[in-house]
Amino acid sequence: MSQTIRVRLVFTEGMLGTKSADAEVFKNYIASKAPDALTKEEEVDKHGTEEVFDKARTVFFKTEDGEPFLYDYQIKGFFKDACSMLSRLTKKNADGKKVPENESGKLSAYKKVIDGLIFPAPREIVIKVNGEITDCQRPLRAQTAQGERVCLASSDEVPAGSTIEFEVLCLDDSHVKAVREWLDYGRLRGIGQWRNSGAGRFNWDELDADGNVIGGNNAYSNSKAS
Question: Would you say residue 84 lies in a domain?
């Protein structure tokens, strides 16, 4: 039996955009896969830091009205990342054998399960920005023939307190526990660029049809979605 859960994420850290600002991103991406493609170090050495900086910039996808959004597949990507990490956790049973510690560890072929049986919606998940989108810059270091060179990576960033709301359809309701487990993991490892640094972390609310909070891990101040 299928089951749909309604979710609101509240970002506790700023989230960075993932869309390349380079207008020729697809051509550049394909070229980067060529056998003689330059490494990052060679690229900095040959083209300089400014050009590499421009290519490294990421922004948010925008609706026709100019609102930033995440695609549904970016939520699926987070689910896969969370499941991959959490499935590594094990415990010993009474016989001393290692067994899965959580729902993620019980899923075999988890990528196929997420691709074929778990569906976030809508396609474009609009971000309710808490304030203004700012610019986040951080250094990229490269060892070149001339020594270490440093350039900047730059990304649009929505601030902490920004929210998104979406639904998750589980065609097999036995997967709902795993989805909730992955959403809980978001307080440790989030969505978007530079997430290893803590960017894009979130807490979450599970909502009923009227927007009332009925679950999740977020101590939210309002009883209804804004």
Answer: yes
pLDDT digits (tens, 9 = 90+) for 151-201: 667 899 999 999 999 999 999 999 999 999 999 999 999 999 888 889 999
Tally of CB atoms within 10 A around 106: 14
Residue pair 202/127 in contact (Cβ under 8 Å)? The answer is: no
Nearest Cα to 124, choosing from 168, 179, 74?
Answer: 74
Residue type at 186 in one-letter notation? G
Helix 176-185, helix 72-86: angle, nearest 10? 90
Amino acid at 38: L
**Span 26-36, average pLDDT:** 47
Number of compact structural domains in the chain: 1
Any domain includes 222? no
165-182 as b/e: b if 16+ CB within 10 A:
bbebebeeeebbebbbbb
Question: Which three-class secondary structure state does DSSP give residue 137?
Answer: strand
**Domain span at 196:** 3-216
Is residue 32 situated within a structural domain? yes
> Which residue's structure tokens are 């971000």?
127
Instruction: Tell me the sheet residues that pair with 166.
Output: 7
Is there a domain that residue 210 lies in? Answer: yes
Q: Please tell me whether the overall predicted TM-score, pTM, comes out greater than 0.85 for this model.
A: no
